[in-house]
Amino acid sequence: MHRRRMGNMEIAGWGHATGRLILRVGYSDRIMAQLIPDILRVIVETKQLELRTSAALYLLGSGRQKAMLAGYYNVHWSQLETYVEISPSIQVGPDPQLPMHRILVPIAGATDDPIGALAVYVGNEEEGDYAHLDVLNALVGDISTVILAKQEQEMRTVASPAPDGQPLQAAEGDGHVLHENIFHLLRMTVDNFPGGVCALDEDLTVAMTNKRFYEILDLPAERFPVGCSFKDILRFNAARGEYGPGDIEELAQDRIRHVKLFLEHSFDRDTATGLVLEVRSAPSPGGGCVITYVDVTARKTAERELLHHRDRLEDIVRARTAEIELQAQKLERLLNHERHVNEQQRQFVAMASHEFRTPLAIIDGAAQRLTRRKREITDEFIGEKVDQIRASVLRMVSLMESILAVGRLDHGVISIQPENCKLSELIELCCAGQKGISPSHRFHLDLERLPATILADQSALQQVFTNLLSNAAKYAANAPDIFITGWQENGFVHVSVKDQGIGIDADDLPKMFQRYFRARTSTGIAGTGIGLNLVQQILELHQGSISVTSQKGCGSVFTVTLPIATPAANNSSIPTIEAA
Asked: Would you tell me how many other CB atoms lie within 10 Å of the CB of residue 211?
C-alpha cells in the first residue's frame, strides 16, 4: 500500500486521496459556508475511517472565546452545540446532545494556534481507542489550508484593484471623501434593492436596514431602528402570530437559535398580511449575517394557479379517459349484440328453410301418391291427401305471414285500426281453427268474465291468439288439455293460455320475447323464434303487454293484457296507430 509521511506520522494512500479530495473541494469559487458541508461529506464517507455519516465544523471568530458552529453534514443544527471549547489536543467522549461518541480534532492556523475544530462521530459505546486519529490529524491540516486560503481571499476582496493591478490608493486628504462616496454608494444600493435588507452583527444587533425591510415585514420603523436587537423583532412577529400558535417566547427562541448559527440558507414564509416572502441568510466574514426578504407572492400565486390548472387538466383527462372507456364498453356491447343478432338471423334462415321444406315435402309426397294410385283412388284417400296438402299450405302461409309481419313492423308500415271487437268470439274462432290443425287437443274456454267488446284491431289480435294457441299445442304434444281463461280488472282485460307441456327453463324466461330466440326445451320442435316477438309488438301497438310463467316439465302460462279502450279512444275520432 502506498504511504506518505506528514510530520512524524505515516499516512496510508487512502488517507492521502481523501486529503486531495478536500483540497479539490476548496479550490471552488464558493464561499466558506457552501464548502464546509462538502468537505465534511468527503471525510465521513471515507469508509476506511469507520465514522458515522454525521459531522460538524466549528470556527473561532475575532474576539470570541469559543468556536461557533460554522457548518454541518447529515445532522440537524438543533442537535448540535452552538459553541464548543477548543483544546490543543484531540478530545474523545460522549456528545452532549447526540447518542454517539464525538471526536473533536483541533484545526491549527498559520501560527499553530487553533482556529477551529472538526467534530466527527463513532458508535454510542466505546470499543477501545479509535484507530485513525493520525489520519484525522492529517485531514484537518488540509481543512486548515482551505480555511486560511478562503479567509485570505475574502480579505483581498475588501479593496478593488486599480486598472494597472496595483491597490487603489486615495490621494492625501481625500481618504475621507472616498470613504463617504463608497458609503453613499452602498446606501443607495441597499435602499434601491427591491426587497428588504437587514444586516446583523454577531450579537444579533441590527447594523443596517433599508426602508423596504419595514414595509415588506409590516414593522414599525420607530420601534425597531438600527441598533435594536433582532431578537425583539422575532418576539414581535411571534406575538402577532407570524409563527403559528404556541408559547410566544418558545417560538421566538427557536428562531433566535437558528439565526445565531449564521448559516447560509433560504426558505419561503407566509406572512399575516398575505404576502409570501423568500427569506435568504448569508453569513458575514467577520461574524453576523445579512438577511434579505423578497416578495414572491405573484410568483407563488402563479405557481399555485399552474398547479391548479394542471390538476384540472388531469381531472379533464381522467374524465375524458373514463368517457372513452364507457363509449368503448358501450360499443363493445353493441358489437356483441350485433354479433348475437347476426347469429340469430343465421339460425333463423336455417330454421325457416327447414320449416318451408317440411310442408313442401308433405305436399310433394301427397301429389306423388295421388299420381301413383290415380286408377284406384277412393274418395277417402283423396280426402286424406287433400287435408295433408291444405294443412301444409296453411302452415306455409302462416309462416310467410309471420315473416312478412315482422318485416313490416321493422319498417313501421304495419298499422292497427281500432274498432269494437268481440274478444270472446275472436278467441273461440281461433280455437276452432287450431282444433282443425290439432284435432287431438282439447281447448277449455272460460271467457264469461270478458266484456262484450273492446277497442282493438280484430285481425291483429287474431294473429296474436292464433300464435299462442299454436305454440300451446306444439309444445304440449302429449298433454291435450289447453285452458283459455279471460277476465277484466281496472280497465284492462286479461286472457291467459295455459298448457301442460314441456315448460321453459327459468334462465330462458326473460329472453322468450326476443326475436329469433328459442328456449332450450324446444330442441327438436319446429319453430323460427319470431312468433312471440311478433305477438309482443302487436300488443304494444295496442298499448298492452304479455307475460309468461313456466316451470320446466310442468307447462307454461302466457297472459295477454289489453286496455278495454285505448287512450286514443277517448277522442271523438279514432286515429290509426302506426308502429314507431
From this structure: 14
